Each structure stands twice: as C-alpha cells, then as structure tokens.
Amino acid sequence: MSAEIVERVLRSPRYRDVDRALLTRLADEELPRSRGTDDAVKRVKRRLHQAVGAFRGRRAADPLPEAIRDAWTGNLSDPAFRAASADAMRAHASTRERIPLLDELYPAVWSVTGLPSSLMDLGCGLNPLTLPWMGLASDARYLASDVDRRPLAAVAAFLELVDQPGAVEVRDLVAAPPTDAADVALLFKLVTTLDRQDRNAASRLLETLAVRHAVITFPVRSLGGRGRGMERTYRARLDELMAGVDRVRDVTEVAVSGELVMVAELDG
Ligand SMILES: C[S@@+](CC[C@H](N)C(=O)[O-])C[C@H]1O[C@@H](n2cnc3c(N)ncnc32)[C@H](O)[C@@H]1O
Questions:
Q1: In the predicted model, is pLDDT for residue 82 greater than 60?
Q2: Per-domain residue ranges for the chain?
Q3: Is 147's C-beta closer than 6 angstroms to any atom of ligand 1?
Q4: Integer CA distances (angstroms), 107 to 110, 216, 251, 266, in order
C-alpha cells in the first residue's frame, strides 16, 4: 500500500526529484492516519511541502545558471563570481535569506570553530553556493547532503566547476544520519524542518555526527513583533536540544543579524 502511494507521489513533477526513502517513510507514517489511498497521497504531499517544497525553486534544464559558468575565472573571491553565485541562491527560499549576512557569517563562525579542513553541510539546499564567502582552503573537503535532488544537482555542478573536493549525496537525515567524519557540520535552519518530521531527529543527529563542532541556526525574520516571539520560541528549542544531548561540551552564540547562530562543541 505504501508503495502505491510513493508511486503516485512520484508521478507528480513537483516531487519526482525527492528521495524515495523519505517518501516511503512519510507514506508509512500517513497511511494509518488516512481515509484511503487518495487521502494518504494528499497527506504525504502536504508533509512534502513542509519538508521540501516550501523552500525550493523550479527545476531548470541546466541545474547551474550559465551566468555562474561565465563568471568563473578560477578565483572564488572574484566579485563577479560572488554576484553570480548570490543570484543563483535566490532559487532556494531559505538560502536566499542568508545573502545579506554572508560577509560577516563565516569569519564569525570560524572564529569559534577554527577554519575547517572538512565540512559537512546537512539539509544543504543551495548553501554550498556560499563557498565563495567561506575562505576554505582549495583542498578542504565539502560534503553536502539533502533529500531534494533539485538543489543537489546545482550543488554538484557548482563544486565541480570550482574544483572543490567533496561529495554530494541524497540522504534522509531522520532515518540515516551520515557516518562520514568532518571538522564542522552545518545544520543551517534544519532543526525546525526535522522537528516537523520527528521531534527526536535533531538530537539523534547530534549524538551520532562524527564532528567536533556543529553550527545550528534558526531563521530570525524581523526584530520587531512576530520576529521576537519566534526568536524566543527558537531559543527555547535550542536550549532544550542542547540540554538533551550528552556530548555537548559548550555552546557559543555567534552574533550576526538576521539568523540565530549557535556553535555546539561536541565530545568525540
Ligand atoms: C529550511 S531549508 C534549509 C536549507 C539550507 N540548510 C539553508 O539554510 O540554506 C531545509 C532543507 O532541509 C531539507 N530537508 C528536509 N527534510 C530533510 C531530511 N529528512 N533529510 C535531509 N534534508 C532534509 C530540505 O530539502 C531543505 O533543503
């Protein structure tokens, strides 16, 4: 029965690029709650919209805009290449919000973690396109994963273009946390997404990640009104998460405007 639901969801052009393992998990969860197959398909699509659909752009013939290829001169900090990369990030609603913070974000994060020689970007969306602001060594290893093949196709083409070593993989972080090791893991705006799928997924991930530092962020839209209430909710969630993971040795907040950024230092 779950298989039938998965096949029907995969027929929708909107979701055919999504990891089959995620579809199967959601179908297994929604089937017992639903009134028949049609209802189950609807429920799975609703969950997929929350997990994936709300953030991503349209499928393009070429995953990487021509403008990025044209702007590549072999230098990541070239202003024209940065501008083309920033433009491409606009295709992912979540990564797009980070564009104004890029100059300050990574220097502030690395001042806590040290400059990583290997990096894991989890539920990455188009965040690997912020590599031109990261200042990593040209031989630093970049491991990017997501459940959505659409941004991953752009990420793979981007890392290949700039010749950054690494790997890009489709991975459901709820069911299969990564086993690779790295200096730092980025969990950018991921906890809220995982919480909607499984309230224990984020803590399981932090318990098992083979990294020394995890950088966990939450969106903070505005400093007034609703934004402040949201920030309080996210801070409370972070406190709960950090208190529930035994390996957390220290937590440092990184001051950047527009995103709540915390670095957790983890025991080995
Ligand atoms: C809020 S967006 C954040 C994207 C990116 N980290 C950023 O901040 O620019 C959440 C991302 O998590 C991905 N995602 C959702 N569920 C996931 C899962 N179970 N495993 C891995 N990635 C997932 C989505 O496809 C989406 O790209």
A1: yes
A2: 2-53, 89-266
A3: yes
A4: 5, 16, 17, 20
Q: Domain 2-53 belongs to what architecture?
A: Orthogonal Bundle (1.10)
Say if ligand 1 is within 6 A of residue 238 CB: no
- Ligand 1 neighbourhood includes 51 CB (under 6 angstroms): yes
Which atom from ligand 1 is nearest to the alpha carbon of 125? 27
- Helices 201-208 and 226-244 pack at an angle, to 10 degrees, of 50
Superfamily of domain 89-266: Vaccinia Virus protein VP39 (3.40.50.150)
The DSSP result for 174-191, as a single string, is: TT-----B-SEEEETT-H
How far is the centre of ligand 1, averaged over its atoms, from the C-alpha of 73 (Å)? 30
Please give the DSSP secondary-structure letter assigned to residue 32. Answer: G
Q: What is the pLDDT of residues 124-183, one digit of tens each?
A: 999 999 999 999 999 999 999 999 999 999 999 999 999 999 999 999 999 999 999 999
**204: pLDDT strictly greater than 80:** yes
